[in-house]
Specification:
- The complex is a heterodimer.
- Chain A has 6 helices and 5 strands, in the order ββαβββααααα.
- By secondary structure, chain A is of the alpha+beta class.
- Chain A folds into 2 domains: 73 residues, Beta-grasp domain (Ubiquitin-like (UB roll), Roll), CATH 3.10.20; 68 residues, [2Fe-2S]-binding domain (DNA polymerase, domain 1).
- The radius of gyration of chain A is 17 Å and the shape is elongated.
- Chain A starts with a strand and ends with a helix.
- By secondary structure, chain B is α+β, with helices and mostly antiparallel strands.
- A 7-stranded mixed sheet of chain B has the order 3-7-1-16-13-14-15. In chain B, strands 11, 12, 17, 18, 19 and 20 form a 6-stranded mixed sheet that branches. A 4-stranded mixed sheet of chain B has the order 23-33-34-35, sandwiched between helices.
- In chain B, α8 links the parallel β14 and β15.
- In chain B, α11 packs parallel to α19, α13 crosses α14 and α16 packs across α17.
- Classes of the chains: A alpha+beta, B alpha+beta.
Chain lengths: 173, 800
């Protein structure tokens, strides 16, 4: 064990101080010390992306970032998306397009998709698939995740959107 | 017309069977408020790390834990010697074998559990794990099941020395586990002797791992004063875990509470009971504090439950027209160091005997030999019922091989051999009774949708052009799955019949809570079970809370795997709902002062036949159930149902895949994949589509890249996500889905289960397409996974 340091950053808009060992990984600080359990641990080798958070405007895998690297940073996690009880368009989109099943990858997926739409408000399917390749999902096969991101992008551009899964489609048919 | 509009509105409000209801699970997951095992934090909680063997086979000469114990923040270091007084150093497996919880004098696979370090947090535990000193004497390892059966092969299980009989009969060698046979050998052999044509093919289904994104883990909390044990655990079968823990610990089941909270995918990986779970429980009992153990990804990929590793030889006998007369199969099954296969007790090869497939094959015989090797234990179903993926792979590959030999198109040969619609229920030569199926229209629908004739014409053109840089392959499968284990007469786990259950309580305000013995890992049970209840009882789905996974509140059930939730628990849900409805009918009759038979059920109410103005809604009836019931009736509106299915269900599908293979690099592009599934009655089309996308993607992963190979020393070579292939959004193909509906005649709502069909059906379809790409050059089969290197090697071997 080595000496602990205080690290200060802004987490989902709130000034936060936390005491950590220099070796502590950001994902552990978030999950164990700050009750931010939305980002998950899936591999600890930067492959799966379940731990994705937005750090100073860049998607990072928080399993391979040291907390001490985050001094003065601005950080956004899935916990910071809904505002005043209103879901972010991406959150709505993932439900409407059935872009999740077990939910384990979802916080990381939405956080990564958020960064994509900040950089490119009208991505093509190919661009979406390329941008999301660092976030693995074992349940959905990605097709509905792509649709969800397209849905959110359209909504964020102010276009009208509807789910590709109408409630009564098969019953009315 | 107005009536129709009104009914449509009521149906919409009910959100019953057939609706694409949005998922009730989603709000918590999209807001980061899921509650997985590693999210749970208890006061005083400690964290544990497993010390594992670097060797595949070694004697343990000594273990020195003194330095680790002395490390600040360490609370305990457990070894087999600590577990011995509790008789917990070995535990029973689901397959009738035993498995070391912590290595007892020797290790028999790499990464085997040797010591368990409990400390203040995961960093301290990891530091201290490094300080445990184990002195090993390395022994020769054997990772090939055929070599394991040689006379002088190393003894993998000294604890079984001299035991000539195992849980499944005679053992013929010190590394042999069982031989299991089914079918009429003599008749089958005669059919081969008399056949006009025979084909034979060896194939290997590699060792793979389900690899859910959340690894396995547990958090055990023992309350010494009350004597209560609570365990939060990544389990697909929490009640089975409770029974196992009770057996191991001698704590009565009434004092054990197993909770499966949200689970980050299972796919079969989370069926078994693993040493880490047991150690966390023991540590909590010993220390009197909550102890959490969470696997790393490498531990997950290399210790908890592989799938497959089947070496199969298939043979078909047929006439010149391609009509199949007999199927013969021999399998050597690599079970690793302990037989921890998750199968119904009576069937050590699971439901492999579904291997006659969708075809009317009069004679069949199967023989499977289970073998120990120095590889990690498991043998779970990876998104399939027990060994069904292997079975379907075998028969779908074999019928292709036969088609090629006879130069008959592979769609055509399937049509000639299909079990016909009017033959159902169909008794197979291996003793299964297929409930329903309608195979020909399914295949024809697919062939038409993709314009099969045009695809074959394009392929012929490309084959004729020597300058064409790609090889085009077309794959077809027409598979039948067996799911919904299962009837207690043939299926049990540890002696407990494989029924499932549902309990529904309707509250005075007309809302309800329902609990089942299953547990969702992404399938959306909270959404779909409520839809069944809505249609069957008239209570709007939005008013129904569905709870699973807590053994203290849910009725006993065997859990969620083998696509059994809909066929088994879903039936219990329907039947419990009907019990509610029938009691409601009597209350409504009492309120309306008519006889129960004078009432008809109409979506969400009972109305008097011939006088629809007189009606009572389910909401009104629920209120009356607590204050105004007929004389002699008990108050309340509750029902419980334990459902022991009369048979399995047999979903089926017809898949077609088109691949383009680069001749020079081996790179393969899946151009098109068309999947038609028939799962009987469809409960939620949106969720079905999602399950199919997921299953197809896992099938794609298995066929195109997944494998856990070993080197000769027994080092596992696929133990990280750098080595083990999980497809990303870039590689994953676009999926086209379609369906037909052939309800199960014995299921209360006709549903069959769906989530595993796309995995089971797609893998042989990819193989069919890959082989087809090279078929004109004489290839009848080459083994998965079809990564670029292997495909390139195959192309090279053909001189391309």
């Amino acid at each position: 064990m080595s000496k602990k340091t205080i690290v200060s950053f802004k987490l989902n808009g709130t000034a936060t101080d936390v005491m950590v060992e220099p070796r502590e990984l950001l994902i552990h600080t978030l999950r164990e010390k700050l009750s931010i359990t939305g980002p998950h641990i899936g591999c600890e080798t930067s492959h799966c992306g379940t731990c994705t958070v937005d750090l100073d405007g860049i998607s990072v895998k928080s399993c391979t970032v040291l907390t001490v690297q985050c001094e003065g940073a601005e950080m956004l996690t899935i916990e910071g998306f809904a505002k005043g009880g209103v879901l972010h368009p991406l959150q709505e989109a993932f439900t409407q397009e059935h872009g999740l099943q077990c939910g384990y990858c979802t916080p990381g997926m939405i956080t990564r998709a958020y960064r994509l739409l900040q950089e490119n408000p009208s991505p093509t399917e190919e661009e979406i698939r390329f941008w999301m390749a660092g976030n693995l999902c074992r349940c959905t096969g990605y097709q509905n995740i792509v649709k969800a991101i397209q849905y959110a992008a359209a909504k964020m551009r102010g276009e009208s959107v509807t789910s590709s899964h109408p409630l009564m489609a098969e019953i009315s048919a | 017309m107005d009536q129709n509009v009104e009914n449509h509105g009521r149906l919409e409000k009910l959100e019953g069977i057939g609706c694409s209801r949005k998922r009730r699970e989603d709000p918590r997951f999209i807001q980061g408020k899921g509650n997985y095992v590693d999210d749970i934090k208890l006061p005083g909680m400690l964290f544990a790390v497993m010390v594992r063997s670097p060797y595949a086979h070694a004697k343990i000469k000594s273990i020195d834990t003194s330095k680790a114990k002395a490390y600040p923040g360490v609370h305990a270091v457990l070894t087999a010697d600590d577990l011995k007084p509790l008789k917990l150093h070995w535990m029973p497996t689901l397959a009738g074998d035993v498995q070391a919880v912590l290595a007892d004098g020797y290790v028999s696979f790499q990464n085997q559990e040797v010591a368990f370090v409990v400390a203040d947090d995961r960093y301290v535990a990891a530091d201290a794990a490094e300080l445990v000193e184990v002195d090993y004497e390395e022994l020769p390892a054997v990772v090939d099941p055929f070599k394991a059966l040689l006379p002088d092969a190393p003894v993998i299980r000294p604890d079984l020395d001299g035991k000539s009989v195992g849980a499944h009969g005679a053992r013929k060698h010190h590394n042999h586990i069982f031989n299991w046979q089914i079918g009429d050998k003599d008749k089958t052999d005669r059919a081969f002797t008399d056949a006009e044509v025979t084909v034979k093919q060896d194939m290997h289904y590699p060792r793979v791992h389900p690899c859910p994104l959340e690894t396995c883990g547990s958090l055990a909390s023992y309350d010494a004063i009350r004597g209560d044990l609570t365990v939060w655990i990544t389990s697909q079968a929490p009640h089975v875990v409770r029974t196992v823990v009770g057996l191991l610990s001698s704590i009565p089941e009434s004092k054990i509470r197993i909770i499966s909270p949200d689970i980050g995918g299972g796919f079969g990986n989370k069926v078994g009971v693993y040493p880490g779970y047991v150690c966390s429980i023991v540590a909590s009992i010993v220390l009197g504090r909550p102890v959490k153990w969470i696997e790393s990804r490498s531990e997950n990929l290399t210790t908890t439950a592989f799938a497959r590793d089947y070496w199969m030889t298939g043979e078909l006998a047929a006439d010149r027209n391609g009509k199949i007369k007999a199927l013969r199969v021999n399998v050597t099954a690599d079970h690793g160091a302990f037989d921890a296969c998750a199968d119904p007790t009576k069937w050590p090869a699971g439901m492999f005997h579904v291997c006659t497939g969708s075809y009317d094959i009069p004679n069949a015989h199967v023989s499977v030999d289970g073998v120990y090797t120095n590889k990690f234990p498991g043998g779970v179903a990876y998104r399939c019922s027990f060994r069904v993926t292997e079975a379907v792979y075998l028969v779908e590959r074999m019928i292709d091989v036969l088609a090629q030999k006879l130069n008959i198109d592979k769609a055509e040969i399937r049509k000639r051999n299909f079990i016909k619609y009017e033959q159902f229920p169909y008794l197979t030569p291996l003793g299964l009774e297929f409930d329903s199926g309608n195979y020909l229209p399914a295949l024809e629908k697919v062939l038409e949708a993709v314009d099969y004739t045009a695809l074959r014409a394009e392929q012929a053109q490309k084959r004729a052009d020597p300058n064409c840089p790609t090889l085009m392959g077309i794959g077809i499968t027409t598979f039948t799955e067996i799911v919904g284990a299962g009837p207690s007469k043939s299926c049990d786990i540890l002696g407990i019949g494989m029924f499932d259950s549902c309990e529904i309580r309707v509250h005075p305000d007309g809302s309800a809570i329902a609990r089942m013995g299953t547990i969702s890992q992404g399938q959306g049970h909270q959404t779909t079970y409520a839809q069944i209840i809505a249609s069957e009882s008239g209570i709007a789905a939005s008013q129904i809370a569905v709870e699973e996974g807590d053994t203290s509140t849910a009725p006993y059930g065997l859990g969620t795997y083998g696509s059994r939730s809909t066929p088994v628990a879903g039936a219990a849900v329907a039947r419990a709902s009907r019990k509610i409805r029938e009691k409601a009918r009597k209350i409504a009759a009492h309120l309306l002062e008519v006889a129960p038979d004078d009432l008809e059920f109409d979506l969400d109410q009972f109305k008097v036949k011939g006088d629809p103005s007189k009606a009572k809604t389910m909401k009104e009836i629920a209120w009356a159930a607590y204050n105004n019931v007929p004389e002699g009736m008990e108050m309340g509106l509750e029902a419980v149902d334990y459902y022991d299915p009369p048979n399995f269900t047999f979903p089926f599908g017809a898949y077609l895949c088109v691949v383009d293979v680069n001749k020079k690099t081996g790179e393969t592009k899946v151009r098109r994949f068309y999947a038609l599934d028939d799962c009987g009655t469809r409960i939620n089309p949106m969720i079905i589509e999602g399950q199919i996308h997921g299953g197809l993607t896992e099938g794609f992963a298995v066929a195109m890249g997944q494998e856990l190979p070993y080197d000769e020393q027994g080092n596992v070579l696929g133990g990280t996500l750098m080595d083990y292939f999980l497809p990303t959004s870039v590689e994953t193909p676009h999926w086209e889905t379609d369906f037909t509906v052939t309800p199960s005649p014995h299921h209360p709502i006709g549903a069959k289960g769906v989530a595993e069909s796309p995995h089971v059906g797609s893998i042989p379809c990819f193989s069919s397409a890959m082989v087809d790409a090279f078929a004109h050059l004489g290839t009848t089969h080459f083994n998965m996974p079809y990564n670029s290197y292997r495909v390139w090697q195959h192309a090279q071997s053909l001189g391309l």
